[in-house]
Structure formats: C-alpha cells, structure tokens
Design goal:
The chain is α/β, with parallel strands linked by helices and 345 residues long. The radius of gyration is 19 Å and the shape is globular.
Length: 345
C-alpha cells in the first residue's frame, strides 16, 4: 500500500511529508518521495501561540491548519503516485495525559475534502482514554521497521527512544531537545544551532548543569508536553545570567548525560534520527557518555523517519492491526488507533 505520512513536531521547523510504499504486511518500506515544507513566519507564530487562544480561535486554527495540510498535500502529489490513504499526526497543542487529555490540530475533514483521499489522524486520544500516555508513538515503527537496532532514538523537539526488553517493546520521552536549542539560537539571531557551532563557542556551567540534571521529569516522567517545559524547565534558562553560548554548551552536555546515559548495554547498536542527529556537537556529547555503537543514517532517514512511521500507523489502522503498544504507553491494552475520514461516495 502507498501511504502519505504527515508530521509536524514541537521544534516548529516545518511540515514533513513522506510518501511511502509499505511492503510485506508493513514490515518493510520504500521511501518514494519526501519533502519538508518550512512554516512561514505567520504559521510558525500561529502554532506557537495556539495554547493561548480562546476555544473559538483554536477551533478556527484547527480548521485553517487542516486546509493548509490539504493544500500542501495536493502540491506535493503533483508529480507523485496517488496514495491509498493520508496519515496525519497533526500538530500537538496540548498534551497532558496525566490529566486525561491530548490535542493535535489539523482537521481531517478539511484534508480529505481538499485531496479526495481517505485520511487517518488523531492517533493519541484512544490510548489516553485507556489510561496511557498517548506517547511515544514511534516504537511501533521501531518494532516493525528498525528492529535490527537495539535502541532507536529520535532527536526532535523532544528526544525519545525505544528498545526491546525480553521481547517487549519499551519506550519513553527522554528529554527536551531541539526545542530548547532552537529557542537559545534564536536569541542569538539564528534559526537553529547548525552543527552545534554556537554551543561550541561556550563552556559548561556547572551550576546550570546541576539544575537541568535535577529536573523533576527525570525522576518519574514518561511522556513530555510543551507545558511541562514552560512550567519549570525553560525558566531555568530564562533566570540564568551566563552567556547564551554557555547556556547552549551546558545544555548539550546535559543532553549527553541524559541520553547517552541510557545507552549502556555492552555491544549494543543505536540508530539516531531527527534533526538533532545533524548537530555534530550534540552527537559528540551523547557518544561521550554512551556505550552503544551509534549509527547516524542517511539524511532522508534522519529527516523523515517519524513521517515514515506515521505512514505505517495509518496503514496499520486501515488494516485493523495494532499501531500503539500498551507496553510503551502504559495503557490498559494495545490499540488500533486513529479516526478515519473517507471521501463521500
């Protein structure tokens, strides 16, 4: 089945589109075409401020963003095979599973109406209703498509990982990632810290490092939302008086200790993808504390692994197979999750 996966992450770097041919009952894939559509300043601002909107305004944004997704799909498919389905992650506005709710915007009806293609989305809500965290979702892809690695790590806006333990897939959000380095880089006048060059100009501040390492999430957290970061993590940087380059270098050292500290299985292998995999300084910091043999794959897999996995999730939903693992999320049972909107007949 050919499926188009759509992914918008917390790092706000744009909309990822991955056209994927899934083979062998969803255990193998071929990436046919992929593209990242950068958000305009207007869209980036709208998505960043979505949590501050009234109910009416948020509903309007939900519809408008769905229209935007549909339009981008049509442009993307101009010279590409038509997929059987579209599988859309949407853009996360709220994620507080411990309070029983999560919200990804991007109206599925608007996508379907504009493209004429059945669309699957809203993957997290069913799992949350079963008492799960609704995250991470990538482990089903790690299990079916990338099981030759002991660990799979995504360095996106938030870092997460999964691994198999005695035949059972386990996973969790590890730490903040690009969302924080991007924030600091923007204060320095850059969209992001390319290759970690900005952080490389700084030095590690032990006081800030200790505060970051002692963040409450690391004691018991499993799934992280932007609200958690705004509450008591980002303020650690806002209240710091050290130079911004030192903040970045300290942050990378912190991520190296947190992420690398999980990769301690002797003779193990680890696949690292996501935008952070291109940050040479960040990867260097992770390797400093890791035991695993780390693989950085091709740029296509670095950039589009999550969108590829969402294409798989849509396929699994349409074919009525499990696409969310309770061993990962903590839900009462596995799920074949996702709302399906089909074109009118």
């Amino acid at each position: 089945m050919i499926v188009l996966g759509l992914m918008s992450g917390t790092s706000m770097d744009g909309l990822d589109l991955a056209l994927v041919k899934l083979k062998n009952s969803g255990t193998d894939f071929e990436l046919l075409k992929a593209e990242t559509v950068a958000y305009s300043l207007e869209w980036e601002t709208s998505l960043q401020k979505a949590r501050e909107l009234t109910g009416r305004e948020l509903t309007q944004l939900h519809i408008s963003y769905g229209k935007f997704l549909g339009e981008q799909v049509n442009t993307f498919l101009t010279q590409a095979p038509k997929p059987a389905i579209i599988s859309s992650h949407g853009h996360t506005v709220f994620h507080q599973p411990n309070l029983g709710y999560t919200l990804q915007i991007g109206d599925l009806n608007e996508i379907t109406q504009r493209t004429g293609i059945a669309t699957v989305g809203d993957f997290r809500s069913l799992d949350v209703s079963k008492g799960g965290q609704g995250a991470p979702l990538a482990p089903i892809g790690d299990e079916l498509l990338f099981s030759n690695y002991d660990y799979c790590i995504n360095l996106g806006g938030i870092s997460n990982y999964s691994y198999s333990q005695e035949g059972v897939r386990r996973a969790k959000d590890l730490s903040p990632c690009n969302i924080i380095s991007n924030l600091i880089a923007k204060k320095l006048g850059y969209a992001f810290d390319e290759d970690g060059k900005l952080g490389g100009k700084g030095k590690v501040d032990r006081g800030l490092l200790e505060k970051l390492n002692n963040w409450r999430y690391y004691k018991s957290g499993k799934s992280m939302g932007i609200e958690d970061l705004e509450h008591d993590y980002i303020p650690l940087f806002d209240s710091s008086s050290i130079p911004l380059e030192d903040q970045l270098m300290t942050y990378y050292e912190h991520l190296g200790q947190i992420i690398g500290g999980e990769l301690i299985k002797p003779d193990s292998t680890c696949l690292i993808t996501g935008g952070g995999a291109k940050n040479k300084l960040l990867v260097q910091c992770i390797k400093k504390y890791a035991v695993s043999n780390i693989t950085i794959p091709s740029s296509d897999l670095i950039d589009f692994k999550e969108a590829i996995i969402f294409s798989l999730m849509g396929y699994l939903r349409i074919t009525k197979q499990t696409n969310i693992l309770s061993s990962v999320t903590g839900a009462a049972s596995n799920s074949s999750s996702g709302v399906i909107v089909r074109p009118e007949f």
